Protein 1
Amino acid sequence: MAKYAGHESLTKNAVFVYSDNQLGYKFSDTHPFNQKRLTLTVDLLNELGALNKDDIVEPRIATDEEILLGHDAKYVDIIKKAGHGELSNEQGEPYGIGTEDTPIFPFMHEASAHIVGGTLTACDYVMQDKVKHAANLGGGLHHGFKGRASGFCIYNDSTVAIKYMQQKYNARVLYIDTDAHHGDGVQWSFYDDPNVCTISIHETGRYLFPGTGNVTERGTGEGHGTSFNLPIDAFTEDESFLDIYETAFREIVAHFKPDVILTQNGADAHYFDPLTHLYCSMKIYKEIPRIAHELAHEFCDGRWIAVGGGGYDIWRVVPRAWSLIWTEMTDQKAPDGPLPATWLEKWQLESPVTLIPTWMDPNNMYNDVPRKAEITEKNYQILEKALYMIRSSQS
Amino acid sequence: MIVEEIMNTTVFSLQPSDTIKDAVQLLKKERIRHLPITNSAGEVIGLVTERDIKNALPSSLLKIHDEDIFYQPLENIMTKNIIVGHPLDFVEEIALIFYEQRIGCLPIVSAGKLVGIVTGTDLLYNYIELTGANKPSSLIEIRVPDVVGILFEVTKVFHKHRVSVLSVLVYPDKELDNMKILSIRVKIMNPLSIIEDLRKEGFDVLWPNMPGMNL
């Protein structure tokens, strides 16, 4: 098993932003968005021996001023009131809270500000050249809108972080979102901004939330041509997903030439995920960070920030998927073979499902998809449509 | 929905004495395909479409340069006695006119004057608005028996979950005569508990379908 290779040098390659106070972002015991996945991931990395104490940095709490970079003052005020028991569900509904998706919970402002702060901490480390890469897996709440919560997301840490990097570091940012849901909140925040490029690969919104993310959404005004959407079909498998991801990412990053790459790493495109209908395996979660890492070095002098996102099979999918981001970021060999036995034993007792005992998934996880060839062909057409503008500008 | 809610009120039109050249330039500049022709009183007396002009002009492959054609008045090529609509017409009704008469645009006339125009593209956009997602939402499709009160039974489940419904479409089931398909757009990311309750009530939820699949 790969050993941590960081202690030979004082300058670290990467930091892991985390503290237990990120677990305060909790709607209820039965809500599908469950930050216990952070505990499970950190524990898995610990058992693997891949995460040292001095790799971990405390997330700071975002100031109101910082949150206002991406949100309305009125909305922030509502969230504060809601978390302090001063708002009914009915009063919250126009702001997207107090709903079944995004219920009100105690201290929701403070918990959300910790998530945003974590992503800002990660940005500061990278943009001040203290490290090349940083991960804040508690972040990635990409559905948050300027004045409204949506789809489990209150404050949009990526939106705030991108605005923050624009202001403080004058950075040109590329955001790539591999969550199975469209990264709508971040896209709309920068839809008219030519200095921020957003890419979202997601299950088509024909049925799935939030419904947007059509290939024809390309940005507006000066920002036309800096929003990219790759809506892929339900039942898409590893090969087609990765083909789309790598081709689009590589061509767009070469075209846009960012200073820094921010990746949103929702882990809900997996076959086991209860909320979506993609048929991917752990293989994509090994490849997604590998390619991001490679392109960050090729185009951005290594500057790469990774945040989390969705991921609703918190036992079988998220801990493995997110551990692979960290091992990639720190140049450790991607773990293979069995998971640490101690981890499996400890968490199997609590898990309602049988854990997958290996890093990669078993081969016979699902039956063959009947229309695989057509799905692959359709996804490929989407890729060509999405890249049409930059390809024709080159030729 | 009525026509005045969707019609274009900036209408580009010409007069019968204007030339084919005028029409060619206007169509090109505004990227449109239809030109109502009005008289000096603003009454619609004809229509010139892109096709009328193409028919009038010589083939671009011919090496004849008969400039005279470009200076012919539109009067000579326009369609007279055209079908027009009224701002208070229902969008559903004019859609039927488009389909049955195989036309591409409908000039809208009120008090004898041209006040708007609706094209096939506008109708398509209207359809996109009806069926698409303009707010974050999920789509649930349900097969229900075609009986009185069924929509009430279905929406009771949404009410129980306090989820707002953005749109409801009802269409006939292609396979089963006595059934309907409901396509309901709801403002929720996690529809699982709603689907579970719909199934408990005996409804046939077609999508999202769980792994097992039926494309």
Protein 2
Amino acid sequence: MVAWILAVGLHGIVTSRDLIHQIICLVVVQSSTYVLLLGVGYVTGGVAPYFYDISQRAKAVDPVVQALTLTDIVVEAAVTALLLSFAVQAHKRFGTLDPHELVEFRG
Amino acid sequence: MSQRQRLILFSVAMAGLAACFGWAASGLPGFGNYPGPYGPVILHDAVAQTRATGVVSAVNFDYRGFDTLGEEFILFTAAAGLSVVLRRLRGEREREPDREPETDNSNKPGTSAAVKVPALLFTGPTVLIGWWLASHAQANPSGGFQGGVTLASALALVYLAGEFIAFRRLSPVMLTDAVEAAGAGGFAVIGLIALAMGLPYLDNFVPLGTIPGSVSSGGTIPLISFFVGLEVAAAFTLIIGEFLEQTLLIRRGLWITSRSSWSPGSSPSACMGS
């Protein structure tokens, strides 16, 4: 599952003809890490680590990797916002979002 | 490099990645029986130690608070970087619109009521949910990050329901900047207060309360979550505002690029310099 999401995202990045599409593909690649982290921390039969209305002795999944996943998502949001702003500037300067045409501009 | 060469390079790299991935995955513990040393320890002690029933929040804002401080500053830096990248570049100046703005607007259809009414209806509840999320980190799966993003999306709804002017009036850049700075600084200051009291940085120095999971319990967890909520809401409002501003400038043709004066020989950094 993780490998599949990773491969789909990477394939998209390599074959993409549009910077915005490429950025979204990077988001897909990164979302494979969420699945990996949550999968690693899963405990068979475990509940979510929130003990508001359940017993504190209930078997729960690992909260540490879940906290790491939260960090992962925040970093992804920051990276995506910055990359999109680069895409806006690239389009303003070169009038295109196609990576191949952008390469031609650089010479 | 041609498209074909690139695909060949990609397949070679993919084969290597697949091999390494398979090797790494074979060393993982079986699905469903993670033997991690920290999870069980924290699950056993967190509620008694922090009086927070949301253990993920307890990890984020207490046990691993220093890490979250860095995480918050990543977002802070991204918002700052975005403002820098999207500033007006040299040779890009606002040009007087060819026509009067009034005639320009009359040609465009306004926002339809089908968009306006739901956006207005959802704005209030979205603010409420965002505030609730940001203030209940210690109780349930919520926290400053989730609440802050929700609050910022309420402002995006204001833009959808009205105009960019309404969005800007509700979130002036000065105020947004101040709130963002207060959010980022507040977190660091909470850590410093603990230090001033002779405790380790970001130690939980506030009385923990007696009822696990209530609003007043958890010590510094709800406080830090509140400041994170401020920071995240302001950062995302800033980011949304910057992109909307760019969209409006481009739509109204108020900018011209310096493409004609740009030569392939000059380095990108020279172009980016103001």
Protein 3
Amino acid sequence: MMLELRDIDAGYGTVQVLRGLSLQLAAGEVLCLLGRNGAGKTTLMKTILGLADRRAGSIRLDGVEIGTMPAYRIPRLGVGYVPQGRRLFGEMTVAENLRIGQLAGDGDEATRNSALAMFPRLEERLGQRADTLSGGEQQMLAMARALCLGPRVLLLDEPTEGLQPSMIALIRDAASALAAGGVAVLLVEQRVEAVLEIADRVAFLENGRLALDTTPDALRADESLVHRYVGV
Amino acid sequence: MEFGPHLILALLEGLVQASVLMLTALGLSLVFGVMRVVNVAHGEFFMLGAVLAHVVAGWFGAHPALGFIAALLLAPPLVALAALAFDRTVLHRLGHDPERTIVATIGLLYVIQQLTLMTFGPEARPVTAPFNHRIAIPWIETTAAGLSFYFPWGLSTTSYKLFVVVAAFAASAGVWLMMARGRVGLVLRATQLDRETAQAFAIPVHQVYGFVFALGAGLAALGAVLVVPIRQAHYLMGGDPLLLSFIVVIIGGLGSLRGTVWAALLIGMSDGIVSVFFSPTLAKILATLLVALVLVYRPGGLFGAKPA
Amino acid sequence: MSRALVLHLGLIAVLFAAAFLLPAYHHGNLARIMVLAVYAMGYNILFGYAGLLSLGHAMFFAAGMYGMGLTVRYWDWPMILALPFGTLAAAALALLVAVLALRTAGVAFMIVTLMFSQAGFLVILYFNPITRGDEGFVIPQAARRLAGLDLSDPMNRYLAALVLFSVVLLACHRLVLSRLGRVLVAIRENEERARLLGYDVWAHKLGAVVLSGSVAGAAGAAYGALFGSVGASFAEVPFSILPLLYVLAGGAGTVIGPFVGTAFMFYLRDLAGTVTDAHMLVAGAALIALTLFARRGLMGLVRARWAGWLP
């Protein structure tokens, strides 16, 4: 088991968001996390990264307890993050953003090159400021930046938000390829259809805990499940 | 002295002050840019640099050149260490909250200033420059015989002052290079742009803060060591550099290093000129009002972008 | 009668009794403390209740002091006119500063007030011939008369200070309970929500600055009249820091806190003064300690632990 969360209580300050949440993710697996706005999807990712207040429960990365670690130690253990809204370092160039990713991990040139190979369009824009890129390119950069650290676990928070269908396909294929290469992928999305193809499992977050953990096939068989948990 | 040479003199003096101000203000600008806090005790770090320079130079009594070099090597790091200690023990505990940090640094200002008063005393003490040669500056005049050079009496500078200008520019260039190219600069800029995401990319933000706070103090102290052979060390000498650094950082644009450099040159030179030709008090009144009005009407400063 | 009112009236009664019981040294100190506490209470209106941290209140104190002092010195005004004039001068300055400074918030507001105050100090120095600059000037004893009483007499001075203190203390008490006071607290807690609820946030903040500045000015005018000297040091930065220190120590956002903080810090610095000349050292160290460990101040702590009813 690459990533294991057990009985997590977490939130921000006095507000509690996650209640007794447990979750498992294996290497090479793509787990898609769905839920309404405010259900706690982003909080879950931030808790794994140590950026939220974890009050109870344990988080294990490949057997190592990371719940008590300071946030800046965790990425180095192989956790890559593609934040919601991308959160690029806008005033820095594409190359510099990638470099930050490299510095966060063992990131050698090979890792960076394979990240760029996945998103060749970035190669042409290395000297450009990140905030001058188009929406799709920014998403590619956000993913490439995370890949530059050579992650074993990749956290993707709504990566297809605001993208055209061709871009969505690109992101989706990249995630799938990474999983095939052994990376554990935790993917949060609002839109179910976008990710159903590549997910090995689909889980629903409700009231701060996992309400349902099932497979894409089961979802396709029963559409009412989606309405129930995501309320389209 | 006629107006022309007098102006040249004022400009030269202004250049010396401006280059030291540039270095000092860069320190304050870095702290504000990366940490988003205002260090009201910045002037006191400057003063500490000068005071420590006097003390260290005193150990080398008969050899001013050695004394100065020792001061240059020892004083800024010592001041930086003191600043680091304060950041670890106090500012870190305050979570670097902007308002609480200002109040705490106000407290620090008085603690440093008054402790210096108690140990160093209220008199101004000199530091001997390592070298000091008078360099006369020529002035052009049209006469019946055409253009001719002459050396107006009183229009001169010293080799040491020129050294100060060169050194301050070199140090500032070093800081600039570090920020624009180096790995350290990359980490600092990432922290400045998005603190949370920086942490998600293994940047130890709190250690970065400590480093930046120390660096800011060290730069102020360096500026002071350079200028103290020209001025003198005095426990109240931190007030003017603080005010001027404030003006520079606010007008240049909070968080913009380029703006800081331009504003320092502009303000350093004009402060020199206004002080020479008009009253220093009037210059200060205009300066403080200028800062206030810039903050009121253009919160991003004259060069900086509008803050998010 | 509410517990709060009992407490405040009780304090006034104790201070009144102390007028006749205290030895001369403490008698004089307490008179000073009471006037400085008025300054602190003025500061508290802005900081403790409206939540705006000014670093330039010395300019209001000095405006009151010089407003009173200059009219007495150059136009021979009697105190009955000079004192209100000083207060009004401070109020006018507060209005001007508020209109400009309220366009900023947070750290920028702090720096703007600091800068305006510094400019004010420098202006006093610049007009040296009129203001006598740094050394200041003395208010002659003959001029220090109010309602037939000689204010330089220690007992009269003490009682006059007590009257001013009592008026301001009870006025603050009323302010806190009033609608204006509650709106200010609402703005401090959550400005956006207050605006959404329909309150004119800007107008309330403006009122808070003017009120705060006027009270500070009244304290300045009174201080000059009661202790007989007017000087630029009262416009300098350290004098802007002191009310912040007093209010933090005593408890920001409480009515009685400023008095407690002023008395405490006054005596602390007095004690330290016997050991060293560096009187601001204690102030600096106390500021750091308070921000780190005791943000609520003495009365704030009392309110949190035992007396939730304390306004």
Protein 4
Amino acid sequence: MKKIIALLIILTALIATNPLVVFAGLSDNGFEGGISSGYVTGEENFEYKEVIFVTGRPIVLEGTVIIKKTLRDDEVRSTYTYNLENPGENATLRRVLNYSTSLTGSDNGQTLEQTLFSRDPFETIEIDGVSYVLQDYDFSRSNIIDSKPAVDYFAGNTSGKKTYRVGNNASDNRLIVEIEGNFFGCKQYWGTAESAACSLWIQYTGSDDSWGGTASIKFSSTTSKSMEYVDNMPKQISFNGGYIERQHNRSIMKYDCKLPEFDSDGISTDHMIEKSGSLNLETFPVQKRLPVPDLSHIRGHWAERDAGILFSLGVLHGEETLFEPEQVMTRVEFTNSMVMAAREVPQDPRLEKRKSRNPSRRNLEQDRISPFKDISVDHIFFPNIESAYNRGLIKDMGSGSFGPDETVTMSDAITMFIRALGLENMGPGTYAVTTFRDNDKIPSYARNSVYVAQKIGLVKGDARGYLRPGENLTKARAAAMLNRFLRYMRTGMLDDYTGIMNY
Amino acid sequence: MKTIGRKGILKKTLFIIITSMAAVLLLYLPAAKAERLEATYYGMDDAQSVLENIDYTDIADSWARDSIVQSGAFDIIKGYGEKRFEPKRHLSKEEAIAVILRMGGREEDAQRLGEALEAARNNDEKLESARPIWSAGYLRLAADGGLISPMDFADAMNPSQSFLEDDGFIRTAPARRDEFAYWTALVIGLQPVYGQQKIFNSFLDWEYTDPIKIPYVEAVLKNNIMNGNANGYLNPGGPITREQAAQIICNAKKQVLPLLGMEEKRGVIENVLLENVMTSGYEETVKTFLIRSYDGALLAIKTQVPVMQAANEQSGESLRPDNELVVLRNGITGKSNLLKIGDRVEFFIKNNAPDGRVRFVKVLPNIEDTRYIAARISSIDSDNKVVKVKQFFELDHPDLISGKSLQYNILEKLPDTSYAYLENLKVDNGKSIGSIESIGEGSFVVLTLNNDIITRARISAFPLYADTGIVRGIVEDNNPSMGYITLYNEDGKKPLPGSPDSLLMYRTFSYANNVEVFRDHKKTGAEMLQTGDSVYLKLDSDGNVVSASGVPNYNVKGGVILSVAPTFLAVEFGDGTQGILNIDENTVIEANGMIAKQDELLEGDHAIFTIYEGVKGYEAKKISVSNDNKLVTSVYRGTVQKAEQFSNRLIIYDLEKLQGGRWINTTQKGLNEIKLDKNNKLYVEGIESSIGDTVDLAGRTVYIAVRKDYGDTEKAVVVSMPFKGSKELLYTDNILSNLPATGNVSLLTNDLELGYNKGTIIVNEGRLVTGRGLAPGHEVTVIAGRNYKTGEIQAGVISVSEGSGIKDLELFRGRISSIVENSSFTLESFSKLKKTSWDYANTPKTFDISASTRMLDENGVMGIRNFKDYGENNMIDRTVYVAGKGTEASLISTAPYAAHFSMGTVWEKKEGELFVRDVRSYESSSHTWKKGDDISVGIPVNGIIIKNGSTIAFEDIGIGDELIIIRKDIQDNKASIIIIE
């Protein structure tokens, strides 16, 4: 535990240097089938949209959801307060839901989350003078979180059954909405994605009429950071153009429904109408200017842009004017860069445990023991090497040494990338066969990783289809690969989640 | 259960494989007596003189000692006499050329040429330079063969070598290393390598290489014939020493041997037989070396030495020379008596014939590297310190046995191999260290062998899966109709034919008669296992597959279809890469959640592809078309005010939308924003560009195709900029012909030929297509302009008109005579809508009604359950319109009688009213359309609106739509029926 706290402190220190942090989008949409604009630092009020089918027609409601969360031991208490309306339809919705989520760890590092109501739910909808009051709500949600060195993945299911009383207090008219849904997501430093598919079954039983219909809702939410290069307009300025990092939050939703047509008296007919629609919610991007490295000595080099981005983001370390693209990258340098590229998954700040400050960092340092005999605790990269070791990014090969000055081959780098992403399971189980022409030269320990990397578009090989797995990475090659890895984290991985709706 | 036929063939193959495997294993057994000799070779009569020539005294310290001896034995580099080789001496240019030509087997040619040249030399020359140039023949041959230029040759033959310029070809000057490489490459026939990598990547001083020679130097480097020194220097301009040359010759033996008419063999001496025979009256000792070659064949080398030496009485020369071998063993040269049983030898045969002569034999060092083998202990003989094991295969590392497993069926058939072990051998059983006796017979072990002596043993967890008869791997090929399945090696490498390992690891299995197959844990037939699947196979004691279980390893990618062919699709994936997807009868095709046929796939369709990405390309397993939010919804025209790269949008002035064959104002005045799609494409005058590259978009006219994204925001998928300043032309016409090869389309009525290019926005049913998607007969709206460079008319937008009109929907009117509730109803008699009239038929007509039949009455929608022949809603005797296909009624309406036909174009929609211009009314008396004033019409709640063969709602009528309006009369401001054309 001491080690973990030490690590947390180190990481907090790391994160503090870069205040623009993506936080969990997990459950910011709530569990009601709507979408929210997602978390922006310090906000509790989220823009929110939802489609309801209670009248037998899709009605889009817009407004806000206020989310409050607290963490107590292994339980998260959360309250979601919705205020929604659609003036055109003369519709309003008020809803307050209190959940309790219990967290259970398992031996394989996965966390099981189980969510139930902690207090009676409240919901009323008014549409054109008719009120729908929630009488009963059965709800259950469960998911697992699989934490990998640089990404948390989660997947789960929701099921719910809502019973509304339609009309006044004395009314016997009942509307039942049942929801079954699956959701999937990933969470990492550079972005988060969550997507879900729900199917709804809607059934009305009244004194005058009764009908049934279905609807399906798919939605996805992403927060991502993009990088844009801007040139300087004036020329007489001490640095070149630089990079802007922007954080975008975007939620999209698509619904399809099949509901009866209503006659001129508002009574259902047997004729079913199929309708579909989509909603979109975006936040105004938050942007941050990144420091501009001085790389004038490699102007025009293939790796100039890659190195520029990586120095701006702190992934490449050290004096940038001493960056020699054709120099071979050492294992310790590459590992340090990997830790900065595949950063630890940030915690939801709303769920941070209040910790008493440790007396001083000095005491902590004295407690530190290096996991490797050839990396001393005084090594400039020690904190990151230790973090890489603790997070499982690098392994002790049994000898107890790390080999800091050894070179890194293409195969090594790809293995580390896939380990960071935790996607080894995407391989075919046995040793994979890749389509690279030099497949047989890929060392067997790396073949599965290369297979996965090829599948997710992380490596492409050269124009003639060779991977050159044994090549020692120069700093230029390493920079290109690291930047490609970052691009994958920022877009490729997230796109796969939004692709569930439509690629 | 599926019965697999034709299994016998495979069994036979497997049998052959096992027998050949057994042959390999015989390596370790004494030679069988009756075994047939593959070939017999003989020694050389001149072995003695060759040995004398190569018995150098100054090469003991040379690192290239063996190569010097070998190249000497091949007569390629000769000594200087007196047993001197002078390994460090630089090779002169003429020597180098001579060496290289000998390497190419051209010695005789060169000598002949030399004699001819010498004969042709006139006496003056002979006077000038008394000695003939020994290398003349070689140099001439080099010049003829293009190794050196005619000028070089002239220089070389110049008697006054010391007066030549520095850059002249001084024949006695040292040869450069790059020169030597170049000549070597030419003579041994290496192809020059023009994409150099090795030289640039590996050597710091590559730029000193003569540029013309670089491709050849690269070729020589690539073939590992030459290399630089350990410090990364190639030293191309430096001299080449004689020992280096000797080494190079040996390095190039693969290429050189065929040129010399020689062949290399390797093997282990299994036995030596001695016998005395009588030949032509002499008694001779014949020594036969039986050699087991590495491919399993048994070879023999025979030498023949007279028992009594008979010498020529005058010269003392042997009358019958010894037929002997030239042998090199540990740096010592000698005859066949140097060879011993168990030696690993490499030997070279001249005349690759069964009775070839052995030119040179080299004993390979028996100091093997440490080897690790996986084995099962058969017996332990602790008295003699020998264990017998069944040896499976070698490992790269003693601790890494994952990724390899043994086929159950082979295990029992393996012969035993004996190994000696160290007296104090330590055995690691995973928990503690014990003695060899702690290993039980039958244990699975990983043995570390040094010089074939066991130095370490470890009991391994290996048997857990070796004993079960289960193999796993990835399917390389599955052919149940032939009865077999082939897997890739477990380590993912492709099986290498020929290597002993590949025999042990043979990966083709035949199916047993009844095989149980699971795919994705569902029971299925063997034919369902696909290339690329991860599978487990359970084998019976004969090695046949009795059960198989596999899961697919598919990849899922989104993309758009570029073209459709019978057996494949060309697609562009979401990441911008393109690929060919092979499709076959097993490919599942789905469109909007329903199974579809291949011919329903259209160019421009967006789909999710489930594919296997194999060595042979992409194989499509499933294609699921989903055009949701992907189809082009509108085409716009406007003038760019500015392009914003960061916000990824265009600000457009004067934005208009293409509708009904013309440009129509959009609602927002002034400037409009058009967001660019993530995968947008931008074309400037037909050339692909991007918003970042194109600086001067401002002020240009653009055509923009947009799709509707989530939340109904429009996003530009294609932005196309026509030729600057060209006047816009607009045609509504039909296509007469289309030539996609040249990018030309001709229009029927306008009698005009237009060009199109990549930048032309061609839209058909919302799909962006290429010119191939246009077909004769298509009704199109074309926006075009003149290319000011060629004068040709170029299309900017070609929009194929969407389906419209009544199509196969039929519209009837009649009086209801009877109703069978929720089932059918009958019209007493009916009129059917023809183009501009109602055709009356005096016969009853019955329609079926179902839950999906809609009913409209004066109040609007009426439930079909209320369509009854009794009660307050009694519909008997009501006159209704019925829209339907065949006898299926899709809509019943009580809208008022209407028989007056007008045509016109909608120019505005307001408060339930349509404002229509270009109105023409049909006069049934004259059968003509007559022009009239603009009108406004409303539609009653039970009015019928038809478009593209279906009924639609009022909201779906668009501005610019052309209508047929059917009303009571010309004054009526309510239209009972509207058909959108």
